[in-house]
Q: What sequence folds into this?
């Protein structure tokens, strides 16, 4: 038996004669619904990797979600819940995995897509923001002309841990004059209390 995670739902993967069966153990009703609706008996989603990318870190792997078209589509539905085309001007995705989900969300909402990337990864002039994360420090950047003042922004990342990356990204959006409607995550590690750094914004996971 192994623990896997989809959103805020913890799942037990139980070996049976017919394969792996996942049962929802907790989390919100919508995530439980996603699990019930999209899981095939042989799928394992969000396997926890030990000591990656550094010793002591438990990595939440979302690549199985991306590999399953139904799970990927369901994830985009969850991340954009409450928004319709016309509600959002720009969807901002956070490097690295957040870029994948944000691009999909932008297409669904008929909105523009803006990447927040690690320092040195963007070709044009940028604003930069330093931040601390759970296993070190980093700097992220955004193009200086990426967001027009007053633009309505949905900020997306795959994982909320300590909140440092999202808070730094939100600061960059505000520096450009963007109006953050919400910050949404596929997975939240609530025991790290990352929402405290984002208390000025609506946060959904």
A:
């Amino acid at each position: 038996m192994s623990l896997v995670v989809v959103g805020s739902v913890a799942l037990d993967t139980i070996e049976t004669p017919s394969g792996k069966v996942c049962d929802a153990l907790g989390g919100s009703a919508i995530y439980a619904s996603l699990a019930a609706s999209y899981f095939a008996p042989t799928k394992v989603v969000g396997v926890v990797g030990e000591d990656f990318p550094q010793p002591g870190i438990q990595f939440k792997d979302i690549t199985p979600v991306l590999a399953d078209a139904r799970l990927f589509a369901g994830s985009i539905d969850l991340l954009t819940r409450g928004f319709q085309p016309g509600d959002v001007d720009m969807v901002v995705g956070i490097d690295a995995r957040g870029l994948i989900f944000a691009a999909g969300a932008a297409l669904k909402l008929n909105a523009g897509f803006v990447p927040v990337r690690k320092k040195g990864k963007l070709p044009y002039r940028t604003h930069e923001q330093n931040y601390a994360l759970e296993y070190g420090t980093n700097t992220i950047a955004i193009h200086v002309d990426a967001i027009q003042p007053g633009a309505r922004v949905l900020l997306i990342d795959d994982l909320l841990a300590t909140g440092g990356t999202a808070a730094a990204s939100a600061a960059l959006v505000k520096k450009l004059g963007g109006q953050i409607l919400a910050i949404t995550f596929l997975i939240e590690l609530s025991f790290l209390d990352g929402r405290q750094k984002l208390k000025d914004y609506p946060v959904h996971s």
The helical segments are 29-38, 63-67, 69-79, 97-109, 164-175. The two ends are 26 Å apart (CA to CA). DSSP finds five helices and twelve strands in the chain. The chain has a mean pLDDT of 80.
